[in-house]
UniProtKB/TrEMBL annotation:
Species of origin: Streptomyces atratus
Name of protein: Nucleotide-binding universal stress protein, UspA family
Family in the record: Belongs to the universal stress protein A family.
PANTHER family, sorted: ADENINE NUCLEOTIDE ALPHA HYDROLASES-LIKE SUPERFAMILY PROTEIN
SUPFAM superfamilies: Adenine nucleotide alpha hydrolases-like
Source superkingdom: Bacteria
UspA domain segment(s): 2-139, 151-289
Pfam families in the cross-refs: Usp
Amino acid sequence: MRLPVVVGVDGSEGSLRALDWAAAEAARSRLPLRIVHASLWEHYEGLRPGADNEHPGEQALAEHLVASARDRVRDLRPEVGVVSDVQPEDPVAALVRESHKAALVVLGSRGRGRIGGMLLGSVGLSLAGRSHCPVVVIPAVPPVAPAEPGRVVVGISDADAPSAAAVFARAQAAARHAELVAVRAWRRPAHELLTHPPFPGSPASPQRRRAEEHLEAVLGAMAEGDDSGTVVRRSVAQGPAHHVLIDAAEGAELLVVGARRSSGWHGLQLGPVNHAVLHYAPCPVAVVPDTYRG
């Protein structure tokens, strides 16, 4: 069974961008698209003192919202099979449940539409920490048109083996006929104060050499059995990981980062790097659970 691309909508401009991105992804991957609106409209309806005949109820607005989204996809991507659903519950809980049976879940990064309760900024952050499949968050500001050829950027973690994020990024690059840029950040220890720039021809720092060796080992393992023909470019840069990744993502089609499950932690561990790129990356960001196997 082909798992769908799921997109959460709330009627905001951000969710329309997420809808368009999800529809394009579904078309490229030849997957069905599932449009979901979830909010506690039953709660809001219950708080209303009486029916207002001049204004539709929250449920009617939600039904109209998803119908409009469905029509938009059918106009823009007629080849994509699309279904929709309105769920009267907390959006994070609803989308976490959807993630059990989705290829990926797509959201806008922020913005509230006409229906109360689905603030995609907070929903996206919470969902990225609890989802069972990759979550793609589309930036609030339309990204700069990707450079040609396209690029998919992935952050390479400390893991010795290729991470789920790296494998997902390679598949995305292959599907898009894009270059894969594997990024490894490194930092000089705080006690090593560099009082002047290194001279030309001076040996690389031990930290940079270790970063380069680690990146080569991970990419070497990824290359085994890979016949996609995807061009892989290496990037080793000094600085905080989130700065390095955000800089590398300029003009990219997608930035991919991983999230790991921690013992005793409910959901995934979203560290400061993930938080930063979700807020500030100039392109769509995919957060991939380390347990994801495609």
